[in-house]
Amino acid sequence: MISQSLKKHISKLQQKKYRKEFGEFIVEGKKGIEEALKSESEIIFIIIEGNKREEFQDIIQKAEKKNINIEYCTNKDLNFIKTTTNYPGIMAIVQMSDYSLDDLMNKSPIICLDRVNDPGNLGTIIRTADWFGIKNIILSEGSVDPFMDKVARSSMGSIFRENIFLSKNIVQTVLNLKKKNYKIVSLDLNGKNLEILKSAPKTVYIFGSESHGLSKDLRNLIEETYTISGAGETESLNLAISVGIVLNKIF
Amino acid sequence: MISQSLKKHISKLQQKKYRKEFGEFIVEGKKGIEEALKSESEIIFIIIEGNKREEFQDIIQKAEKKNINIEYCTNKDLNFIKTTTNYPGIMAIVQMSDYSLDDLMNKSPIICLDRVNDPGNLGTIIRTADWFGIKNIILSEGSVDPFMDKVARSSMGSIFRENIFLSKNIVQTVLNLKKKNYKIVSLDLNGKNLEILKSAPKTVYIFGSESHGLSKDLRNLIEETYTISGAGETESLNLAISVGIVLNKIF
Q1: From the candidates B128, B135, B156, B210, which should be mutated to test the interface with A, based on the most A CB atoms within 10 A?
Q2: Residue B79 in this model has a pLDDT that exceeds 80
Q3: What is the pTM of this model?
Q4: Chain A CB contacts of B124 below 8 Å
Q5: Are A238 and B124 inside 8 Å of each other by CB?
Q6: Does the pLDDT value for residue B100 go beyond 90?
Q7: Residue in B130, B231, B235 nearest the CB of A132
């Protein structure tokens, strides 16, 4: 059985303001927790449904080796703590990683997302960036919280391997990168053919949200735009698909 | 006010068996209905929240020109008919299109999806196929229903422009295509580099679901496999991202 105070703490972590206050977030499901265990992230608690010990034996062993607290809960406890209706029987409280812009100025390109608000899309972009070995992601102010449970879930654990910097002023952030000789690249409908895009490490690839596009101030900072050629009648591609196609191109 | 019988009919259409029985499905939101109006699909009813007439004036005019029934509902009616919590104030009942395999044997490649069960992913794949002008999609038995509201929504109206064939025996369907000299191509982790894939009209691109992959019988029919190169530690790409990258390559 888990304590009342832990239950309260978990339900608080379902709100962004408390995640920020405590610097912790919730990860649900086997895959995400396995990836957290493999990463350098600090896992504060793992909570497992008592009658599913066998299913999660492998995780339990690894967690015990790392001296991570494991709590077992009853089915009754679940009503308080689960964040999804299909609760997978296991969750963890994980310390948020805190990256500065300097942490991202390594030899690898940077993906910059302006006001992306769909958590599934953001999780998929994080997973795709991880597939292509691109470690650096900037999120503008007004973006969905990357530590929301749905983002972590759709990232399939990739969230533990990406350097995510939360910008409070995206225009200033991009200006800072420009001063450090980063090239600022984006997509639009009238750009050069994406096929001629060449990968360079000091590049920032900026993508706007599907609903808002890029802000005018941000557009003014862009040096080159490219277009993903299409033939159909639909007006646009899903954002995560566009990011995937660009990352495949520069890989 | 809308009638009790229409309300009942709409709530029935939220279940797959009734969609099949009536050959109708629900489309919610401005974008989807605009696309339905542009397409050759038959719209049976449009239902609009009474106090949102102004917002949907353009749709109302177009629907009236086409002699489509428009019903206005109250906020109270909404509790019975809305399929999402963020009800956009407008929905339509649309006749399902019914394609045979022969309809898909035109000069364009075919996308074949085996047991894809995520409605958001399927909608995104339909939208992406439309972007790249690929009109033909086969869904295997055991796939998510493409006429589910969430699929139509994430397709952003592209569902009205695609020829979707619902196979009852995907192995037999692919065998039939093979007999007609279609080449059967797929992705795996040990295939040729995707960069050398060349587009040919008589090609079937088969993709499995993320959770199940391809069935053994289906794998036996594949003639060529390709790999999307990656560098990170994540095991796989999201299915819709993989499809997007392949379609961009063959476009």
Answers
A1: B128
A2: no
A3: 0.94
A4: 238, 240-241
A5: yes
A6: yes
A7: B231
Task: Please name the member of B128, B158, B238 whose beta carbon is closest to the beta carbon of A124.
Answer: B238
- Cβ atoms of B138 and B112 within 8 Å: the answer is yes
Q: Can you name the residues that pair with A183 across neighbouring β-strands?
A: A203
Closest chain A residue by Cα to residue B158 = A234
Q: Looking at the complex, does the CB of residue B121 fall below 8 Å from at least one CB of chain A?
A: no
The answer to whether residues A138 and A113 touch, using CB atoms and an 8 Å cutoff, is yes
Q: How far apart are the first and last CA of chain B?
A: 48
Alpha helices by DSSP H, chain A:
4-12, 16-22, 30-38, 57-65, 75-81, 101-104, 119-131, 149-154, 170-179, 216-219, 239-250
Q: Which of B233, B239, B242 to mutate: most A Cβ within 10 Å? A: B233
A153 reaches B (C-beta below 8 A): no
In order of their start, the domains of chain B are 4-95 (3.30.1330.30), 101-250 (3.40.1280.10)
Number of A/B CB contacts below 8 angstroms equals 106
CB B138 within 8 A of CB B103: no
pLDDT tens, B163-189?
999 999 999 999 999 999 999 999 998
Task: Using the structure block, give the residue that is written with the tokens 């002023």.
Answer: A169
B124 lies within 8 A of chain A by CB: yes
d(CA B121, CA B118): 5
Of the CA atoms within 13 Å of residue A133, those in its CB half-sphere come to 12
Dump the DSSP string for B50-113.
GGGTTTTHHHHHHHHHTT-EEEEE-HHHHHHH-SSSS--SEEEEEEPP---HHHH-SSS-EEEE
Q: Which two tokens stand for residue B196?
A: 């050398």
Return the bridge partners of A204, or none: A110, A184
